[in-house]
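tool_call: predict_structure(chain=1)
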Amino acid sequence: MRTDSTRVHTVVDSPYGPLTLVAADGVLCGLYMLGHRHQPPEETFGARDDGGPFPEAVRQLTAYFAGEATDFDLPLRLEGTPFQQRVWDELRRIPYGETISYGELAARIGSPSASRAVGLANGKNPISIIVPCHRVIGANGSLTGYGGGLDRKRQLLAFEGGGEPADAGRLF
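tool_result:
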């Protein structure tokens, strides 16, 4: 994660536990769940700012978890390699409630033999939920890999399939 910009963060509650939102120069660049596998060191998040650039992201996340929104319209600053950027851009094209395999994702970005590399890039997605890496599954339909943990991946997919959030009483 780059550190040559002004960064701030906030922590909000969600049905899936606390979410840490990070912004660089006023643009969302991170959304991490508790225990997130590839979360950068907290000291790179900047000062806590519960207002600043976050109200619209919180509003859209609240609508998503309430079942009132199926996509996000936020400016994002996805920091990664050109290959990771291609993977993350394609993730945003997977419709709400649908899943694709790592191999299909690799084919969609024009690298059909790169499903392992796609899996690694998917796992390093810095803006989970909003960039829906949870919608990518194994070729046989198995739930494999998720930075926020397989239980959360299972819960998010069930929620998008018409279920209730993990704890509907804990919306922001």
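agent: The first strand starts at residue 7 and ends at 12. Proceeding to next step.
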